Fold:
Amino acid sequence: MTNETIIEELNTLLRGTYMGIRSFEHYIQKAEENELKKVFQSMQQEVKQNSQRLAERIQNLGGVPADDEGFSGSIHSFMHKAMLPDDTKEMIEDALKGLDHYGVQYSEKLVRGDLDPESRQLAEKVIDTSRKQIEQLQHLLH
Structure:
């Protein structure tokens, strides 16, 4: 495995974190309850910290970190904002679905193979953040 391959994988994960940041922005703008808004803001900060760590790792490997979610990510973001539900419960369910699908399942597939131990550990931390956020949001539904 080459640094180039590792950088490419980490940049894909980084673009995903930018999608997460943008999605949380949509939820923050749409949420009417202050408590829910605060939860989404806190989650967004965690994802921003992950994006900084990923960018640093990419730079340390000699690469150039992605600086946005990429073309397909921006299309997805546009569609997400347009289709975001107004209902609080549905909004939380939408966030859960996104975190599970992109933050956990897709990210796990992405990092299965081509990462060195340090990069793999970082990727696992990013995925664990999504798992923790899923638990937090599930508690809000009950």
